[in-house]
Amino acid sequence: MNDQPTVIAAALDQVGVRLKRLRMQRGVTLTSLAAATGISKSTLSRLESGQRRPSLELLLPLAQAYRVPLDELVGAPEVGDPRIRLKPRNANGRTVIPLTRQPGGMQAWKIIPTSKIEPVLKTHEGYEWLYVLSGRMRLVLGDHDLVLGPGEVAEFDTHVPHWFGSTGDQQAEVLSVFGGQGERMHVRAKANKQRHDQHGRPV
Q: pLDDT tens digits for 113-127?
């Protein structure tokens, strides 16, 4: 992991180069920039050469004079790690990986049935949508006992007794989207416009 103070210091070291490049691109002289910002020519020169450490009091007037955001002027490093650290857990013969972190509303998981176990049907509040990413999944739903393959989808009211898991012959990966208050998935797609020949007949 990068040391944040070191990253910030490295960014500040590049401020002088960035300031000089920006001034040259704008065709601005040190004299006119000093008049616009109230910062002395010598201070501006030392900033650009790296001999003067940039401070907020110096950078704010420069950002205003150049009409650029302060973070663009500084080239501030990104704060925060964009990676999402998912924590898989094992439950009832499955590896369950949460894909949503906010409580309530629709919840999504990646589920990997890891072993074949005897189905134990359950009921609860909600509505579930299952999509088989790979392998084969067994779904027992009420009186139905089904095997779903890659690309197949099942959706059902979880008040109906149900269980899903491994078929026992190969590992499966399943995307599960669950609405605890009975929310359903809504899939929308544009309908293809039917083409007609010169006589107006469908082709």
A: 877 778 889 998 889
